[in-house]
Amino acid sequence: MDNNELTILEKHIIQRCIFLPMIRIALEQDKKIIALTNTKFKAQYLEALNLAVLRVTEDMRKNKDDLFDHHIHMTRRTWLDYEVYTRGHVFKISYQKSVAGDWIYERVRQYLTTE
Question: How much is the pLDDT for 4?
Answer without folding.
Answer: 84
